[in-house]
Structure formats: C-alpha cells, structure tokens
Amino acid sequence: MSKRVMSRLGVPLLVLALGLVAVGHAAATWDATPSVPVATTGSAAAAQAQAGHNQSIDFMGMLFVFMLASFIGLGVIRRVSRLLHTPLMSLTNAISAIAVVGSILVVGPSYPLEIRILGAIALFASMTNIVSGFLITDRMLKMFKTDSGKQAAGGKP
Amino acid sequence: MNAATVQLAYMVSTALFVFSLHWMNTPKTARRGVFAGVAAMLLGAVRK
C-alpha cells in the first residue's frame, strides 16, 4: 500500500523538485538583473542588463511551457487501455522522429560538405523511422481488429 | 512561404500530434490516431 502510494507520487514529486530547482535558478538570475544600473544610456552595462532581463523572462516563459506540457502529457497518457500499450509506444516512437525537420535544415546548401553528408544520413535514418513506424502501428491495429474484434470493441480493462 | 504560415503549420502539427496520442487511448479511435499522426507528420515535414 505504502509502496504503491510512493510509486504513484514519485513522478510528480520529481517534476516538482526539478521545477523548484529551476525556479531557484530563475530567481537568482532575476535578482541579479536589476542591481545593474540602467541609468547610463547607451553603455554596454545597460545592454547587458536588458539582455539578462529578456533572457530571464524567456526562461520563465519556457518554464511555464514546460509545466503546461507536463500536465498535458500526464493527462494524455493516463488511463490508456491495456490493450493499446504497444501501439501507443510504437506511435510515440514514430512521431518522435519529427526531428527529421532538423536534418532537413542541416542538409541545406549553406553548410560544408561533411555536415551535409551527415545530415543526409540522419535524414535517411529518420525517414525510415517515420515511414516504418506508422506502417507498423497501422498493421498492429489491423491485427487487433481481425484477431480480437470483440475485445477491442467491447471492453476497456 | 512566409514565416507566419510556417509557424502556424507547426502549431497545427503539434496539436495533431497531441490529439494523435490522445486518440490512441481507446481502441475505438486508435486508427484515427494513426491517421492524425501521419497528417501531422506530413504537415510538419513537407513544407515548402
């Protein structure tokens, strides 16, 4: 019982601890920023203070996005049907290959040749991951429908 | 294509990814989840 409660509380506590560490870091950055005198116009100190302020705001925005995204992920993944764990993992693997956008950007003409060759290899690997991942997930679901259609239609365990 | 359209396509693609994982939860809408993932991948990767 206690072990079960602990395992249920483990992930939110980890996320909370990570968030507290990040907030502490942001607060340190935030407090360090206004102590720089901003009155000197056009100097490097003002520009640096402005840059630090913008970076701190950007970090807080990123932290908010991270919090909301973790709640969305928790709400999406919770209460998965027990039948569908394997297709869910396969689909997650397939859509994690959206990093193909990065390799498409890297094979652009403004990079040296070695980097473009490596980007072409990355493009090939992630295209294989995308296409075969979606095909295999679809095939898995087709097998579920023909093999145990009654179970797939009826029960949520 | 201009930058705003590309960002809008990225946003729609992200929403379709989230809905793809969400539709994967129940067996009744699992095929729809796969097709939403394919559509989101096409929208995110094949832009010009």
Model description:
The complex is a heterodimer of chains A (157) and B (48). Chain A is mostly helical and 157 residues long. In chain A, 79% of the residues lie in helices and 0% in strands. Chain A has 6 helices and no strands. Chain A is flat, with a radius of gyration of 24 Å. Chain B has 48 residues and is mostly helical. Chain B is built from 2 helices and no strands. Chain B has helices at residues 3-23, 30-45. The N and C termini of chain B lie close together (6 Å). The model of chain B has no long low-confidence stretch (mean pLDDT 88). The interface between A and B is medium-sized, with 28 and 21 residues.
Summarize the structure.
The complex is a heterodimer of chains A (157) and B (48). By secondary structure, chain A is mostly helical. Chain A has helices at residues 2-32, 44-77, 85-95, 100-106, 113-147, 149-154.
The largest sheet of chain B, given as strand count, sense and whether it forms a barrel, is:
none
Rounded to the nearest angstrom, the radius of gyration of chain A is 24 Å
Assign the structural class of chain B, choosing from mainly alpha, mainly beta, alpha/beta, alpha+beta, or little secondary structure. Answer: mainly alpha
Count of DSSP strands of chain B:
0
Mean pLDDT of chain A: 76
Major sheet description of chain A: none
Number of helices of chain A: 6
